[in-house]
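Cross-posting from the modeling subforum.

Setting up a comparison between two proteins and wanted a second pair of eyes on the formatting. Protein 1 (sequence, then structure tokens):
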Amino acid sequence: MRLVIMGPPGAGKGTQATVVATTLGVPHVSTGDLFRANVGEGTPLGLEAKRYMDAGEYVPDSVTNGMVRDRITQPDCHPGFLLDGYPRTLEQVNELDMMLAAASQSIDRVVELTVDTDEVVERLLKRAQEQGRADDTADVIRRRLEVYAEQTAPLTAVYAGRDLLVRVDGMGEVTEVTRRILSALAD
């Protein structure tokens, strides 16, 4: 099964991606992990990404696409994978489609975790306090959630139009959310 998981900051996307991927027996492919691994290993793509990251700039799609392409063509991804943090733009959706089409594959499902904004703001404020991140105020967090919604709406529209999108309530205990995701994938 080839899956994409999406959700706003604080939705528990990373936690669910790890649990669901393990349950399904497919690799969890996180763009954050790919960046760290490529930078740490000093790969050509990692060195290029580091240049942008050190300058505080957005890593271009071409670099991100290259890292994802390299990862999903590895043998352990042949039976399937769960993408976390990719795609984030329509250009990345198109690039992912081309990568998979070249191997006669396609995305099977896109899971979008939905959350209650006020509860997520509280969750992220608590996390910010625990991690000493004073710059994560309620206003900043709400703005990040707005930006996420604006940037993700075109992607979810594409996947909904292809009848691949399943929206899952991301609120509640980890095990309950996992159960909802697995149930939605089984439908």
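Protein 2 (same layout):
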Amino acid sequence: MAKILVVDDDEDILDLLSQYLSLENHEVMTASDGLMGIKSLKNKKVDLIITDIIMPNKDGIELILELLDDPDIGNIPIIAMSGGKRKITSEFNLVSAITLGVKEILKKPFSSHELHKAVKSALA
């Protein structure tokens, strides 16, 4: 199926998404923050990126902006996900991502059905 890069600083989320997407016959790469995500993309071509918004080093918004500015990888569809933190809500984070042009959004926690639907839509 598709090659998918999942970027999240939560190891449990990375493991869970990797397992689910692998069961859906996708090839999955993971990165623990946006900086590692960019480095991963220098070595491999992917069909889809799923990124958290709030992360250390390079957050999801910075990652999305860098991806969109790169003509070689700026056309890869992106799914943004967020659970919010402190005074910044997940809704604010996800609306920001939509404004930048992501294909789909997922508010944490989300179901496997919601993930499946977002991946299918982003890859269409």
